[in-house]
Amino acid sequence: MASAASGEDLSIVRPDSDFFGAVEAKSGEPVSACYQCRKCTNGCPLAFAMDVMPNQVMRMIQLGLREEVLQSHTIWICASCQTCTTRCPNDIDIAHVMDTLRQLSMELGVEVAEPNVVKFHKAFLDSLRRHGRVFELGMVGRYKLATMDLFSDAALAWEMLKRGKLKFLPAGIQGKREVRAMFDRS
Questions:
Q1: Dmax over Cα atoms in the chain, in whole Å?
Q2: Are 88 and 39 contacting, i.e. CB atoms less than 8 angstroms apart?
Q3: Are the C-beta atoms of 108 and 70 separated by less than 8 Å?
Q4: Which of 36, 99, 132, 139 could bond to 173 as cystine, CB 3.0-4.6 Å?
Q5: Which helix (H) or strand (E) covers residue 28, if one does?
Q6: pLDDT given for residue 3 in this prediction
């Protein structure tokens, strides 16, 4: 263990007293109501892949640990499946808090811990904007080009194409203009 007397560099945690209030204000969620029951973590289907558990993220927010929260992989790994939200006895929309943390991270220019997640979201939203619904083959193609991971699951793609699960052309829908208009307004 490093000591200050030995001259070794110590990591010092510097809480950001404004962070907690900013997250509550931006998310509209009562993060202060979290009393660490761990129901969010125990129900999370992706907890195995997270570096910080959902209940720990909530506590870190309460403690003002801005850098630790915004640099975590957890906020990017969260799939927003709402399991944590439905299990919370205090009705905190934890999935929305995670979304708020992702937004804050990008607004503050914090390096994204899981950059492929951002690339996936961009490919997904671009597909919605262009076609009015998700065109899976086109979306996956854009994502693969963005990540330069072109062939890691080519065998799976071939099987899906053979079984008719992926279509070569996007399906036409009514209201495509309305969907584009929603994107233009946001």
A1: 71
A2: yes
A3: yes
A4: 132
A5: none
A6: 45
